[in-house]
Structures
1.
Amino acid sequence: MRPCIPRVPLRQTPISLRLGVRANHSAPPPPPKTPVEPTVFADKSSPREVHNRPEIIRGMPPLGSKPKVTTSTGEKGFSTKGREEAFSGPSKPRLVYSRPGERDLPKLKSRAPLVIGLSLLGLGWGLFLLHATNSERLASSVLRQVTFQLRNSPQVIGILGENVRLQENWWALGQPWINGTINLMQGRVDLSFRIRGNKGGGTVYFTSIRPQEQGAWRIVRYKLIADDGEVIMLENMQARS
């Protein structure tokens, strides 16, 4: 059996005993540090690589140099080892490149090809518009009705002969050329064109208007002038546009 040890309360234990118990559980003290010896410099440090001073590279006098007359005009300069240069004033900006001498301005190219090209373009566009408007008049119902009446008119056949038709023109690309305007919306038709038969040819003039917007068309002029000078009035044929 274990011996019975009486328990003593912590408050009744002596302070030295309690401090000894706590001291046993703490870390050991650190070892003493060795003293650091100071560094002593006996002389100034010298650079490993020797370079020229900036004033020598730029052509300026080094520190401590004395002025020396280097020109015959009495200007004072500064002497350097193996190099002498005189300074008469502040530095001036230098030209990066030499200016070109006086010479004539370059001649402009001829504009004749450009003018000719634009003229041909405008002429071609104008001819296209004329051809388009002429084709539109040829395809109109007014011209078809008028030519139908001319082919079946006994008076026209008696002067021009059989096979009355519109006269083709070489400068109109093989098509008949119709002068005038056809404007059905505004009520105005004014045409003149050439026709030809087996006996001869002539010029037809046809003009018709519509006085009212919803009214009937009224023929103002409708006649044929043959090449021999004979004139035929065709208003009695009651052509309608």
Note: The helical segments are 15-25, 54-57, 112-138, 141-151, 154-160.
2.
Amino acid sequence: MSRSDDTRASAYDATPFLPDEGGLAAYRRAAADCRGCPLYENATQTVFGKGDSSARVVLVGEQPGDQEDRQGEPFVGPAGRLLDKALEEAGIDRGTAYVTNAVKHFKFTVVPERGKRRIHKAPSLRELSACKPWLRAELELVRPEVVVALGATAGKALLGGSFRVTKDRGSLLPMPGTDEEQYVVATVHPSAILRADDREAAYAGLVTDLRVVARALNGHRRA
């Protein structure tokens, strides 16, 4: 039984929609009905995380994009394809990873003069905070050794409001609020590379940061 059977969420809080028990499948089903913030009203669907339930690495982005919103899976658009390429080059098998976003619904604005194209809008702090219970639950269920924060929004969700990509990227940082040996490595979001003036340099930086993750995984093998 979901907590939402007994109480409804406030305007910006997903907590009442989390199930009382179960694994990732139970959380994914519950997230489909999340009304924890107003973003669900315009999004096509909830885009929950996907991947290995015992993954040693979890990749966290900002929010679903247009293609992710339509297909219901994270990182399946152009940024996802670039991420796949960077992971392979860094020596990380995405097939053994878990991928998700800090916010589970697509936030966008429609531009009529561009054929009603849906343009990404960054989630607000309130929306990020509202969705954090889902991300926290995913991390508790998967229990990865390393979490990769892809971009500023994911970094703030994991490391707090003072996080800055330019200052903290590429370093193996302890995960706040956990007693386990768990680390965060921050880097840029793949979509930022697609918008960069010098894509080649930006992409090389992403691969360099992901190699920090690969070295950490190689040095800390699970029993």
Note: The two ends are 34 Å apart (CA to CA).
3.
Amino acid sequence: MDTKTLDSEIVEIHPKNGYLSAKELIAHRHSEFEPQSGGLKRTQNEGTAPELEELRRAQEQLRAQLSVPRIERLGGRALAIWNDEQKVAEVLRKDGKFENFGYSEQGRLYLEYYEAMFLLELGRLQLEYYGSVVSIEQAYVLLLGKLESEKYTNYLVYSALSRAGYIVVRHIPPEKTPEEVTSADCIWALLKETVGNEPVPDHIKTSPFYAVVEKRMEDIKELITSQKTEDSKITKESIDLEFDSRKRKANEKPIEEPPSKKEKLSIAGRSLVDQLKNEMSYSKLEEIFEKFDIIQLKSVDDTKEDTTELSSLKITFDLHLHNEGFKKSSPKPPTFNVIILPSQTSFPPHDEIAKIQNHHTAPLLVISVSESKQIQAFLYYIS
């Protein structure tokens, strides 16, 4: 019987067909490697002999873990291609259960970047990019980008929650009721319909603001296309900024010049601004300026309340439990709403959490990812 060496391990191969036996397949497919625990935190300085010895042992453990032979069933992987423009993975061939992953659009199944990366790590997906198979190392750069990016943080949270047994799906904000729709929502819906040919949702059409906003936008459109202005006098009048060039008579009695220029301009009748105010063009400009509708901006004190708005806090994922019978076609309310804090951001106070909780019924799970990629999560129940 012939033998073949696989990474310093002897595997028997049958001479007739060259395939492994069933016992050998099971042994190599479910091979496990238990790395040694790191122990307590090291306190030695960099470059010392104990630190170098610790790094050498860690590299040997990693090399031994990677050299363990593994057997995977290639037919058990789904096939997808990465769409660089839409930043999604289009699934060409499904294998296994995909009811908790991706979303359907026009009869096609698409995976989010974090879902594709997660299935790649599990060995359930073969991702191709311009005809080439993407490795896991390449997928980290292609799908997630930099380590400090928001995508990388979202994937760490998605992977940790999925491995913990939760069903993690992208959070889709619920549609507002006609009573909750504002005039700004109507304006954006009409702009999307005009520019992007997107139909106006029904809950916006039934809003009391919709008819008023639509009529106002039509009037503005007619005003722009017809090149009309509300005040025709302003367009007809020409602004003459030429100052009077007539020579002035010199004063009979010379004025004593002060020693400094500041004192010279402060004397009544000798200021340059006071002299310009006597010109005909200044009075004409002042008359036109009074016709303008001046709107006073908010002061610094007025904008203090706006800085407390939760612009950086948003719900990213929804968590569902497996035993609740989750169905993506008709999902139930989530068990938790997940908020992922931006990098180097402290946990929000109770007032900010309460503002978000007022618009959602599920408890909030606020998660922070540190620089060392450690995840901290706090669950908020606000009655």
Note: Confidence is low (pLDDT under 50) at residues 1-16, 302-311.
